[in-house]
Model the fold of this input.
Amino acid sequence: MKAGVIGSGIGGLATAIRLAKLGYKVKIFEKNSYAGGKLSEINTASGYRFDTGPSLLTLPNLINELFENLPQDAPKVPKIIQLDNNCRYFFRPNHFFDFFHNEDCLKKEVELKTKESFENIKNRLSISKEMYELAAPMFLFHSLHKKETFLAEEHRSLLFKMHKLNFLKTMHTANKNDFADEDIIKIFDRYATYNGSNPYKAPATLNMIAHLENNIGAFLPEKGMYQIIKSLVELAHYLGVEFLYDTTIDQIVVEDKKAVALNYKDKTEPFDVIISDADAKFVSRHLIRHPLKKRLEKQESSTSAVIFYWGIKTKRKDLDVHNIMFAEDYNKEFDSLFKAKELYHDPTVYIYVSSKLNPNDAPEGCENWFVMVNAPSVGDVIDKERITVIKKQIIDKINRFLQMDVEPLIDFEEIATPGTIEDITNSQGGALYGPSSNSVFSAFLRHPNFIKKIANLYFVGGSVHPGGGIPLCLASAQIVANEINGKKNN
Ligand code: FAD
Done:
């Protein structure tokens, strides 16, 4: 049986690996000259290395799984390290809070630096854990578009505990109810951005995200995030998967309500199953006559980003691997992103410094700063002029928060915008996570992993069920491989 995969993002790679393990002859078509899509890297002549997209890894077990049950000589899973400090949060100049993984360290930090009771935080993390454990088996690891999912014995108990998922409140309302300290509320609100959503709109169910980072842990491969892709490509090669780089799929050929072939470079190649890892909205606009096109066009997109990859000629003791400098008025920042669809003048600035963990990522005495702000997913509407303005706003903020003068220390610069993210990945408007999860119904309205009107066509990756972010893309690959395997065995 032959499987054709469109796109070598993490979802496409994981699906290819799972299908190759099931005995499929798999071909991946990738329009770029390298694998990874949003998960990529920059290596500079002067010795800096930057991960270009994701920087935070949660649920690494979903990567480990792909390397299981293989012969001794198979490639091994990359070394993945758990961080002691999940994130350093700056709220104002000279004031930061470390969200340590270790409970005693976290307790001391909470008591020393916030007005919050540690019990409240512990309590919340145990509620997040309970929500995740209740919801994940059905909502993350099964299709929501099959009645069997809802009838399955193991999911039935959830139907009687739905209220525990707190979907009638927003994340922010729940956080405001449960915490006294404004800084702590901001920290917990920010988890909405892990799938590009707005905490003032997204259902409190998403508060389960805090469990992944804080109870289970924040992880980083020893050699950086792109090591995940390199290892998956190596594993795919080992399993006989064929890669066609610089190869754009122009059309999915559908005959008699069945996807039967892929068109590329004026060729038509037949496949038994076709899996798209490309953005679902892109597919509906360009690759097939899509029965869900109208619905997809109406969906609100998740946020995009503006990122500055800066080589910095110094080392800062006051920064950790992950650092956040919050906007003073967080609500207004989200209004700007989702209502006005504009960059905010006092943005929350995220700085990721992988060289803190892996010194090889920067020359001696230097650091590799990945400096990101959230942006509306409006593609190249955010032009050069606006980038110049936001760069100044970011630099002013870093200077104020860290009491430094950052500009003369910038040794290397590359910039990603919603427009460049869209160009590189075909993600419409440069959205990082497909549609937003700003509504109670988002989980049900997300593009399904298959469409009943077109057989043999499957969808994985961040724009489809169960959602964006590495763990959910890996979950989508699991759902699709199980679905294809189930059909093969019937
Ligand atoms: P994508 O990465 O979207 O790749 C799709 C691939 O398909 C691309 O390689 C593209 O070139 C190819 N393609 C598209 N159309 C065609 C075609 N017609 N023919 C051939 N090839 C085609 N997630 C986290 O878990 N943690 C984070 O910290 C995090 N931070 C992020 C920061 C940024 C800046 C970005 C951009 C994303 C971030 N994410 C994060 C989200 C995460 O990167 C994505 O959810 C995930 O990588 C998406 O994978 P995917 O499988 O959907 O494929």
User: Anything to note?
Assistant: The longest strand covers residues 304-312. The pocket of flavin-adenine dinucleotide is lined by residues 6-12, 29-32, 37-39, 53-56, 248-249, 277-278, 282, 305, 307, 421, 425-427, 432-433, 461-462, 468-470, 473 (CB under 6 Å). The mean pLDDT is 96.
